[in-house]
Every structure is written in C-alpha cells, then in structure tokens.
Amino acid sequence: MADQPRYIVERLNPDFGFFVRAGRTLQTAQTRHQRLEIVESEEFGKVLLLDGVTQVASRHEFIYHEPMVHPALAAHPRCEDVLIIGGGDGGILRQVLRYRSVRKAVLAELDEGVIAFSDKYLPEVNGGAFRDTRVRTEIGDGRAFVERTDEIFDAVIMDMTDPFGPSALLYTREFFRAVKARFRDEDGIFVMHTESPITRPRTFQQCLRTLADVFRYRRTMTVFIPMYAVLWSVTICSDSIDVAALTPAEIDARLKERGVTGLDCYTGATHQAMLTVMPFLRELIDDANAVSPITDAFPRFLDEIDLNSDGGLSITQASGDHPMPSTHAEPPDLR
Q: Is the CATH number 3.40.50.620 carried by domain 62-290?
C-alpha cells in the first residue's frame, strides 16, 4: 500500500487556516528552545517550521522580506546601523545588506540553532548574509539586548513569531519605548509585522493602538503573503519620517542611488499600492483607539493566537489512520 500524502495543516484562528502538501522532510534538529524542521513543498519550495509552525518558505519569500526592509531604509536619509530582532533565517538581513550605506547590522536572535540551520539549508533565503563582515550576531532574548545595550541605531526591524508565550513581551508599549531610546536621532525608524487584519483583526488593532502611544507616524502596508495564506500587515514607525510622503519616483531614485537593484516585490509603485487603505481597513485602523494598548502589566491579545499548543499545526497524513515513516536525515550539529 502506497504511503498516504502528508500535509502541513496550520490554523490561523479557530475557524480558518490552510494546508500545504508536504514532500520529504529534508532535515530536523532539536535545540534547547524548539524543534526545527525543513520540508519540501511543491507549492512553496523549502519550508522552515519551528515547533510545527511555518516561519519562512524559499519560494516567494521576498513578498514578506522586501516590504519589511525597503520602505523604511529607502525613506531614511542615510541608514548606517541596523538592528534586527529575530529573523534568524537571514531573509531580513539579506535585504538590509543591499544598502551600500549600511556599515553595521546586528542580528539579535534567541536561538543560534535557527541561524545555523537556515545558513546551511536555506541559502536561497539568506544569500550567505551571515558571513558578511558587517554582520554581528547577538544570541539571546531580543528585549534583553535592547534594554542593556548602549549602541545606537538608525533602524530597528523586528521579525518575530506571533505574539504568544515569551514573544508577547516584544509587542508591549514598554518595549517599543526601549527601542525608541536606542535611535541615533529623531530620524530613527522602527518596522514590525502587525499581524493579519483578516484573521486576527483585534490583535492588528492592538498593535496599532500600542504603537500610537510611542511614535508620531505609523504607516501600515498590506500585502498578501503566500506562505501565510492571508493578507498581512507591516507597520513603519518614526517621529520624523512619514514613509507615505515619498512619491513613487522618489522611491525609485533612492533605490538606484543606494545601489539596490534586482528586487522582486518592492518598487516606487508597489510602495504606494501597499499603502493604499481599503475602506474596511480604514474602519479597523480608525477604531484602533477603542482597544487598550499592550503593556507589560497586561500583555493579553484579543484574538486566539496560540493554536499550536495542542499540536494542531503539525505535519499529518490525509487519513490520519497510519503513522508516517520518518524520512529525515540525521540532525546537524548545532552546538
């Protein structure tokens, strides 16, 4: 009897989710923080899972990574020092390093195993960025690094997992204020994903409400992310830079001047398009003031997010009747 097909089944809220047919498991590893896994997928190429949850896919990853970097760095007058919180797959780092002006990129990642795993198995995502001489890694809690360092940065980009468990304290007003304190000057710019207005609309509103307590300008871009199967949001914040003030021609000219070429998603035209707010989104954004901010004292999110706690986001068989034989190779040495 032929093996039943396997699927990555992932819920985005209690009533909606997606599945992807999985091929071989190429590699697995267990770090002290989480289980890492790379699987093949006809739809997405290679997919990185952390504790069973999709983090990045090699095909079309640029639709997430480019909007997380280029609107901010193109808008900044001269971005030299960048902090990336999370992002151990190296996709954000690769985009940051495209800028000739960048002289230092610090990657603050909790799990060094994610960096080693991604460097070896996802070169198409990170492009060897970890070996760039401008890069320094800081292994440990991203919030702790921000709160203890005396370094200053022109841009801070947060590429974190969804806000549950330890990650929740990276979405609070107190943490955003700590980030702002690390800016070189008033041109400092902060970027984070702010969840999906479709599947987690109240958490989307909470993020915007909390950012509004800290930053003067908050501009939210929306884009459909194939590997997350839904409309997603990225919010760029600053006290002096309004990324919506730049014209498409200005964006294209700045990218050319700064040596940024060969992008697959981001241009001056798509910058403007991603900033266009649909009426239903305008209602959500305008109503965000009605929700409470996320704080250290009350880091509670209004949508159900921790949907992996019962193992519901694991790789399963279509029928579920027979266990699948293991097809992965020996885990890499991540010590």
A: no
